[in-house]
Amino acid sequence: MIRTSCHCAAVGFEIETAPAEVTQCNCSICRRYGVLWAYYPLGAVRRVEDGPTDTYEWDDRSIAFHRCRACGCVTHWSANDPARDKIGINARLMEPRVIAQARIRHLDGAVTERYVDEPNPDAL
To answer: What is the CATH number that goes with domain 2-115?
Structure first.
């Protein structure tokens, strides 16, 4: 069980397993937030500290970025479509030993929406 929280511990999660991989995205918001995203199905994550968050939505408003209202740490994103079974947890809030074991993936969210550490299938 992995436990994570913002700096002041007002917003926290328990997650069944450590992330095998995390995503570093270069889109205009993720690069500014400086986050590493660990993606999970909703059932694998339990919110254990339920402090208030402020949210920010942009572009197509498909996800809401949450930050702790007290300390300002970006904690997670949630899908606005209730049918989408996915949540992004800011892995930088996990203990360093946890994310040190994860593969860091690089997503070109700014242009192609593809992982740049995989071969491009269009180029084959």
So the answer is: 2.170.150.70
